[in-house]
Specification:
- By secondary structure, the chain is α+β, with helices and mostly antiparallel strands.
- The chain has 2 domains: 23-128; 133-284, Rod shape-determining protein MreC, domain 1 (Thrombin, subunit H, Beta Barrel).
- The chain is built from 4 helices and 12 strands.
- A 6-stranded antiparallel barrel has the order 1-2-5-4-3-12.
- Strand 6 (195-200) and strand 7 (206-211) form a beta hairpin.
- The termini are far apart.
């Protein structure tokens, strides 16, 4: 009995569930759904019955589509952001380098234009002068803070010699004080040990102008308090020393102190030449030839005694 029950129970477990034993067969279901699909395709293609249904379904599924595409779009946008950032950094670096290059070129062009302008002025100054001039370039200035000296690239090999005057397009710059084969040392008129004989263009009065060791001031010393000199007077080289040719502008009177407590007036002047600017100068290669000195006359007493002895 137990065996029969066990056998019957095993046969019941081997049987499929009742779900698969009821309803149409698989072939019938396949055929039905295939015909339904073909009918729906035909109806949609010819009669467009499903157009509104498709639109409604697409609207309902649009948020899901956006949510599904969001991770990929975020990754693409993130990659694009970093790519754009790196591209912008490279472009900014290239533009910065280009800007620096253009700024450097513009600065060089301005320097060349200024040098060309100065050179044209120097050439016009040399054309107006009947002296033999030579163009020189200031190489560097002396480091000694107590002197005002520069070095030019013209030496004895180029015809330079000690004592020659040095000018620029505005006036007198200084004097050659030491000569080397390929370079010369020029002492500026603003040096405290430099003196220049000058003449006032307004009234023809002569005097001596001294440097004080500053590039912006010259002093006109030993002028009486009541001397005929005014602010704005132009002072030029007088030419009586045989070193500086006559007529070169030297300075302009800027301030006069006529204090009664001093025997002489304190007169300050501003240099006309670019003693602290510019890089090109002209060396005056010719020195003014002065007549020979007259022999000194013998004292009258000696001549009278010699006559007495002779008599």
């Amino acid at each position: 009995m137990a065996t029969a029950r066990a056998g019957g129970h095993s046969r019941m477990e081997d049987q499929p569930p009742p779900f698969f034993e009821r309803g149409p067969s698989s072939l019938a279901r396949f055929t039905f759904f295939a015909l339904l699909s073909i009918g729906l395709l035909f109806a949609d293609a010819r009669l467009r019955y499903l157009e509104h249904i498709r639109e409604a379904v697409s609207v309902a599924l649009y948020p899901l589509e956006r949510a599904a595409r969001a991770p990929g779009a975020a990754l693409v946008r993130l990659g694009t952001f970093f790519t754009a950032q790196s591209t912008l950094i490279e472009e900014n670096e290239a533009l910065r380098l280009k800007t620096l290059e253009l700024a450097s070129k513009a600065t060089r062009m301005e320097a060349l234009a200024a040098e060309s302008n100065q050179l044209r002025k120097l050439l016009s100054a040399s054309e107006r002068s009947d002296l033999r001039l030579q163009l020189g370039e200031i190489v560097y200035a002396k480091r000694d803070p107590f002197t005002r000296k520069v070095v030019v690239d013209r030496g004895s090999q180029h015809g330079a010699s000690a004592g020659q005057a040095v000018i620029d397009e505005f006036g007198l710059v200084g004097q050659v004080t030491r000569v080397l084969p390929l370079a010369s040392e020029v002492t500026l008129i603003t040096d405290k040990n430099q003196a220049v004989p000058i003449q006032n263009l307004r009234n023809g009065a002569r005097s001596v102008l001294f440097g004080v060791g500053r590039d912006d001031i010259l002093e006109l010393r030993f002028m009486p308090v009541n001397a005929d000199i005014k602010v704005g007077d132009t002072l030029v080289t007088s030419g009586i020393d045989g070193v500086y040719p006559a007529g070169f502008p030297v300075a302009t009177v800027s301030a006069i102190d006529r204090s009664a407590t001093n025997a002489f007036a304190r007169i300050e002047c501003v240099p006309s030449a670019g003693v602290n600017r510019g890089s090109l100068v002209l060396l005056v290669l010719e020195k003014r030839r002065l007549p020979e000195k007259l022999p000194e006359e013998e004292p009258v007493t000696k001549s009278v005694r010699s006559k007495k002895k002779g008599s």
